[in-house]
Amino acid sequence: MKKFGLIGVAGYIAPRHLRAIKDTNNDLIVALDKSDTVGLIDSYFPNCSFYTEFERFDRFVEKIKHTDQKLDYVSVCTPNYLHDSHIRFGLRAGADVICEKPLVLNPWNIDALESMQKETGKKVYNILQLRLHDAIIKWKKQIDEGPKDKIYDVDLTYITSRGTWYYTSWKGVTEKSGGVATNIGVHFYDMLSWIFGEVKENIVNIYQHDRVGGFLQFERARVRYFMSINADTLPKEFIEAGKRTYRKIEMEGTEIEFSEGFTELHTLSYKNILAGNGFGLEDARNCIQIVHDIRNATPVGLKGDYHPLCKLPLAKHPFKI
């Protein structure tokens, strides 16, 4: 049985990690979050020590470092801009680290973490769960076994509605979340680079507080994408049905069906990591480079081969006049 610490246990994604630790028959020894609304812990690890102050959490982890309660893994579920620091903490604590996506905000952060991996002898793993989705694995196999010289045409649409709370939270601050492309799209960019290879061209058509649309030329695909957190960009039939999320991938006019099968992917990620087969720093590099470049690009507008939804009317920021 492996012993875990978890940073960010009150966060949105933390329950999937709690379940994954439980389902893989391991134990959560200690958890940290500045919010104390963490009663969910009782459903998984009622004996887990919990702290709201990093200093006390750090002292506890240091105290058990040379005992049989020493942490084997630290899971990081904190806001994106804190991942780098919390990964470093886990490595210094003598533990391997499992970090939510995005691993970090900038590609050079990966270089520094690679150096720290070598210094500590410990390893960093990233949750890149779409690589474990059966439909995505099947899609990659189709491409790998297809004509080697074929360049595919792909359209990716991902709309996941968020209320005005989003802009009040850290997620609405680009310096903290990385912006829409990073916050909701990084795992899709990882999926595309995993299937279609290195990026040759990265063009951003629109980049707003609530959406991003652009064109990516991979080694084996031309991809038009549109991602949004604005419910008004949903298809009319989804709005009328009260649905809040829309995912669609089309390749050569044929839809790639992957709407189901997401619930167990974190547990499967943990199983792979515990078996020594997790996704490490280098696996995350391509998608971190892609979202970094999108964030720092100058949008070209409605030029070139852009996603049709880029033409939708732009919206005003809810908290800016």
Task: Explain what you see.
α2 links the parallel β2 and β3 (49-51). This protein has 2 domains: 3-126, Rossmann fold; 130-259 and 281-311, Dihydrodipicolinate Reductase, domain 2, CATH 3.30.360.10. It starts with a strand and ends in a 26-residue tail after the last helix. It has helices at residues 14-23, 41-44, 54-64, 83-92, 107-120, 134-144, 165-168, 174-177, 180-196, 236-240, 265-274, 281-295; strands spanning 3-7, 27-32, 49-51, 73-76, 96-99, 124-126, 152-160, 199-207, 211-218, 221-228, 245-251, 254-256. The strands form 2 sheets. Strands 3-2-1-4-5-6 form a 6-stranded parallel sheet, with helices on both faces. A 6-stranded mixed sheet has the order 8-9-10-7-11-12. It is 36% helix and 21% strand. The longest helix is centred in the middle third of the chain and has 17 residues, at 180-196. α4 packs parallel to α5, α5 (107-120) packs antiparallel against α12 (281-295) and α9 crosses α12 (281-295). With 321 residues, it is an alpha/beta fold.
